């Protein structure tokens, strides 16, 4: 049963790929027509009123008062043929940032041909979720400070007003700036998976090997490195003793994201929890030396290969926010292919468990032998304001039964809200 409430997200998410990597982004808008200025509107309104009054009263001499205004409109209205070109210099190869960061955009605009008396002003249009402030402005450029408040993909449209010195102004719109805003992960949590990869990581193993945590002291065996000799124990026993330490291994983690939360019938709070939780897990796992991959299941399903390194964070989070990212490999249906999630991989899913296809995919992943952990981001508090308390009660019972079925299949569920 799906909650009946809905809250629109406080930010604008756009589809499509972001702008191509480039230090300068250029947009050209050809003029089609001019819009009248306030003076032109006043002159047209006054002359029309005088003409209507002359017709209504049958006084043809009143047309003399409207003649100068009509002549002004006939002479002053011009539709020049110009092209407005705008360039945005960001200083970086890609416009990506975190929530709360500040980005300075330098706007340079050019009008060709540019007759005498033509002035150009540019200003960004308001975008929900972003704070836009114009810092400086000249005749041919402007500097805009952008501060995002919410994660998402934002397009910043810039409107230019070109005054021709007459009764008409040219207004153009340039959609040339797109910003990818990543959620800011404050915590440091890792997946409780089974570390079976023989790579250096941060997961303590029971076996001994290279690591930092003390395990035991034993007798020296030929082949042991000299740096592992415990000289205090050697002096106490009168024979060589070495220190054994627990091995520190790495894990492969695949984040499975329920993209059906982006649907219009879902509230925004579960989507925000899922995105922030997935971003926090990806960042903390990469810092621990783990390799991370991503699987999106929804209308557009795809998977990002399991990799490590600093660049993997940007690749996976960009694919998380943008279903049309080039880093995603498409697949049909709701069950990811076996190549997307290899054996001995810990699967952490973020879902509201409201889509039956996504839930069945979790059962199939468990049948393949993966350790599956599900973070249920759908809280019971979303139905506190429902007019019928019976609906909220039945929905809670359904959630409890679903959690029980997942647990019986060996899938660990982390509840996002406490059942009633």
Automatic annotation (TrEMBL):
Stretches with biased composition (Basic and acidic residues): 1-15
- Give the matching InterPro entries: DUF58 (IPR002881)
Entry superkingdom: Bacteria
Report domain DUF58 positions. Answer: 216-378
The signal peptide, as residue positions, is none
User: Where is the region Disordered?
Assistant: 1-30
- Name of the protein: DUF58 domain-containing protein
Query: What organism, scientifically named, is this protein from?
Result: Nocardia bovistercoris
């Amino acid at each position: 049963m799906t909650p009946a409430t809905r809250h629109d997200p406080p930010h604008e998410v756009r589809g499509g790929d972001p702008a191509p990597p480039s230090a300068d982004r250029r947009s050209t808008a050809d003029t089609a027509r001019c819009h009248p200025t306030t003076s032109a509107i006043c002159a047209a309104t006054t002359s029309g009123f005088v003409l209507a009054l002359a017709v209504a009263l049958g006084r043809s001499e009143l047309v003399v008062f409207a003649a100068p205004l009509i002549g002004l409109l006939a002479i002053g209205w011009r539709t020049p043929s110009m092209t407005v070109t705008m360039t945005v210099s960001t200083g970086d190869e890609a416009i990506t940032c975190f929530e709360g960061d500040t980005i300075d955009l330098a706007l340079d605009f050019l009008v060709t041909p540019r007759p005498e008396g033509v002035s150009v002003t540019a200003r960004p249009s308001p975008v929900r979720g972003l704070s836009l402030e114009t810092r400086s402005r000249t005749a041919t450029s402007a500097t805009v400070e952008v501060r995002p408040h919410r994660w998402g993909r934002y397009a910043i449209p810039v409107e230019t007003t070109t005054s021709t010195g007459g009764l008409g102004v040219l207004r153009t719109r340039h959609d040339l700036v797109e910003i990818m805003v990543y959620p800011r992960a404050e915590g440091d949590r890792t997946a409780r998976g089974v570390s079976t990869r023989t790579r250096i990581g941060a997961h303590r193993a029971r076996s001994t090997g290279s690591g930092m945590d003390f395990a035991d002291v034993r007798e020296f065996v030929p082949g042991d490195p000299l740096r592992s000799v415990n000289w205090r124990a050697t002096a106490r026993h009168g024979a060589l003793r070495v220190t054994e330490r627990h091995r520190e291994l790495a894990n492969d983690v695949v984040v499975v994201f329920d993209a059906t939360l982006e649907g219009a019938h879902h509230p925004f709070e579960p989507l925000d929890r899922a995105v922030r939780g997935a971003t926090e897990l990806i960042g903390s796992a990469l810092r621990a030396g783990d390799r991370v991959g991503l699987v999106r299941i929804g209308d557009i399903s795809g998977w990002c290969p399991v990799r490590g390194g600093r660049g993997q964070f940007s690749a996976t989070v960009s694919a998380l926010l943008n279903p049309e990212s080039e880093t995603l490999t498409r697949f049909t249906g709701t069950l990811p292919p076996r190549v997307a999630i290899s054996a001995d991989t810990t699967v952490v899913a973020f879902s509201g468990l409201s889509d039956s296809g996504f839930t069945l995919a979790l059962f199939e992943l468990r049948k393949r032998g993966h350790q599956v952990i599900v973070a249920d981001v759908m809280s019971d508090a979303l139905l506190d304001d429902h007019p019928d308390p019976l609906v909220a009660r039945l929905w809670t019972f359904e959630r409890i039964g679903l959690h029980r079925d997942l647990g019986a299949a060996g899938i660990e569920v982390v509840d996002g809200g406490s059942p009633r």
